[in-house]
Amino acid sequence: LQVSDRAAALVPGGSGRVTIDIGTLSCLYTGFVTATAAAHAGRLAGATADDVLALTDAFCAPMPFLRDYF
To answer: In angstroms, rounded to a whole number, what is the distance separating the alpha carbons of residues 32 and 13?
Structure first.
């Protein structure tokens, strides 16, 4: 995943410096957790401060919610 100027693209290659498990990626993608929170929890292996900022820009979304009345 290459992130630049608030846009992301999947491209071949890269260093693979940052690794994210599928559960953390799912949480980032849905907006359930921020990249900063994932980094503090140790879920972004190899991530630098710049990587966390780039992931924050790439996966910025409001916290999901569901209005439901039972």
So the answer is: 29
CA distance between the termini of the chain: 41
For 23-64, write each residue's pLDDT tens digit: 999 999 888 899 999 999 999 999 999 999 988 888 887 777
Three-state DSSP at 21 gives: coil
Q: Read off φ and ψ for residue 29, nearest 5 degrees.
A: -65, -40
**Cβ pair 28, 38 in contact under 8 A:** yes
CA dist 17 and 48 (Å) reads: 9
Read off the tokens for 56.
């924050």
Q: 38 and 44 in contact (C-beta within 8 Å)? A: yes
Q: Which amino acid would we find at residue 66? A: L
